[in-house]
Amino acid sequence: MKENDTYPRRASVTRYIMPLREGGSLPALADADDGFKYVVKFRGGGHGSKALISELLGGELARRAGLRVPELVFLDLDEDFGRTEGDEEIQDLLKASRGLNMGLHFLSGAMTWDVAVNRTDTETASAIIWLDAWITNVDRTARNTNMLLWNHELWLIDHGSSFYFHHNWDSAARAALSPFPYIKDHALLAQASLLEATDARMKAIFTPEVIDETVALLPDSWLEQAEPGVSPEEQRRVYANFLKTRLANSQIFISHADAVRKTLV
User: Among positive and negative, which fits the CA dihedral 121, 127, 130, 132?
Assistant: First the structure.
């Protein structure tokens, strides 16, 4: 993707408000020059730009699936930004994150989705299970749902732990055909009783063209940092092939998820 394209929107960070100390990535709440607040995921965080790649792909695919996701925005971090930051750890993070980062529109007043208290319908639960099994998202458990309740609706956040094959680049072909055993820990698995119908619906949505369009959004600068020895074009091809192969063989992960679900109900 050429980084002057208009989607996702692009803005610049103007004020670092506070860190959101979750895990090793150290995201933050920040203001941008478009007048909005964002949760910023930094390319200088624990998993580098691979977390941003997962965030963009996972969030955009969720949006295409009809699920609610805060708007994703490319956020520029100026070379001089953060020099007056007093916390040395944060200053190092900002210095390592100069350039293009990922922002999620801040949902003011949102509360963490608690599976012990909050319920969603089976169609939505099935769509989320299907999506997370497809993109191999290991991080939507009852302990850390990465879901928010906002305006009485369920919103998905934080897809940075998806596509975990890219931490071992040569495993992509094998990972594309995995049943995704981590689905057993998913917060919504017990409610996902419509996986077969969901599978048919999602296959109609995610044509090869839609997958290619989504992967094309990945900025060159993220890909160059993620795998310096692999060209951006080749990396996009691997992500697209992973998604297409996994989609064509979705019965592998759907059958596994449904079998595990039946042990829970």
Answer: negative
- Identity (one letter) of the amino acid at 10? R
**C-alpha distances in angstroms, 133 versus 175, 205, 229, 233?**
11, 16, 29, 25
Residue 42 to residue 27: CA distance in whole angstroms: 6
Q: Which residues contact 28 (CB under 8 A, 6 or more apart)?
A: 16, 17, 18, 19, 20, 39, 40, 42, 90
Query: Cα 246 to the chain's mean position, in Å?
Result: 17
Reported pTM: 0.94
List phi, psi (to 5°) of 16: -85, 115
Give yes or no for a contact between 16 and 85, defined as CB atoms under 8 angstroms apart.
yes
**Model confidence pLDDT, tens digit, residues 93-136:** 888 899 999 999 999 999 999 999 999 999 999 999 999 999 99
Q: Is 220 helix (H, G, I), strand (E, B) or coil?
A: helix
- Cβ-based neighbours of 211, under 8 Å, separated by 6 or more: 240, 243, 244, 247
pLDDT (average), residues 161-187:
95
Count Cα atoms within 13 angstroms, Cβ side, for 245.
Answer: 14
